[in-house]
């Protein structure tokens, strides 16, 4: 019988944010990791090796689940700053031309660069959509990141290519998804094809929707339905559907999302930068028990991949918009970047630190700008940023140690 390998121990975690069902926060606790799984959490867990190999001292660290980015386009990484001051539809005309010039090698290299940035900032799971999905999948495998990968579908040719790509995924860290770009750029027959593939393969289907006022009125004029009503009418909405942006939607549409069990990706920084107008009705979504995750969108519309910025901005934006300082709590903001983000992507075994879950964990320095003894969650949400991340573990493997990415 093959001997069990020595476990990894995160020793004496100064603060451990579990994000479990009770949202327990522990102090001075150990985490034992066996292979790719969290085996147990407890005090003074014994080690098998005499040289303490596999032990990481976390006595001066905040330990928490790796962050989950529910929407980005890493293949665009070289386009950062290309168009900083344009509304979405003007922005798309400029950026799409630049995207067309990117080769498969460019997209691969951009994806690697994007993953380097995201990992350094503590994001361990990413939903990524762009062209050349096989090249992007190779980049994820190279960097040891967990992800969902899709190619944006505009037409029947794209749909066929997307379906062919799905069968090529082999890495246990990766899952395929299928992504319609939007209602206004994808005709109904193709949208129905996306639904059919999603149902047949039992995979997530994604769409940009409700991003601008123009989009809302154009769709209503063309279909005599509001955007979410239209998606509901063609059968797009169900628990496998991920709706990105959802700013210009009504309470009635939110009810349709909640009833169908569809999920929403909130991208506040990208929406503000592109002057989308209005604010996503997050409070109403939470009242309808809609599961909402956070996304950065691409660096062409953000302009970075620090999900801690989204965590901070989310409650600030909605407090300001609603004239109510209590409207979104730090716990709710952190949930969107961890357990709820994982639920958006259909990944029940990441997003929290619990026995039996995958070991996707990050540690943060307790810097001089944080005083966690006063209110740990407040410090994480309003003070922490990606530069505080010290260690990154994905699927039980150390991807970054002491702020240095490890060789794959």
Structure description:
- The chain is of the alpha/beta class and 408 residues long.
- The protein has 2 domains: 8-66 and 351-405, Urease, subunit C, domain 1 (Roll); 67-344, TIM Barrel (Alpha-Beta Barrel).
- Helix content is 35%, strand content 23%.
- The protein contains 14 helices and 21 strands.
- It has helices at 88-100, 104-120, 133-143, 156-166, 188-201, 213-223, 227-233, 251-260, 268-273, 282-287, 307-322, 330-337, 339-344, 376-382, and strands at 8-13, 15-17, 25-26, 29-34, 37-42, 55-57, 61-65, 67-72, 123-129, 146-150, 152-153, 174-176, 178-182, 205-209, 241-245, 263-266, 292-294, 361-365, 389-394, 397-401, 404-405.
- A 7-stranded mixed beta sheet has the order 3-2-7-18-19-20-21, with helices on one face. Strands 11-13-14-15-16-17 form a 6-stranded parallel beta sheet.
- A hairpin with a 2-residue loop joins strand 20 (397-401) and strand 21 (404-405).
- Helix 12 (330-337) packs across helix 14 (376-382).
- The mean pLDDT is 94.
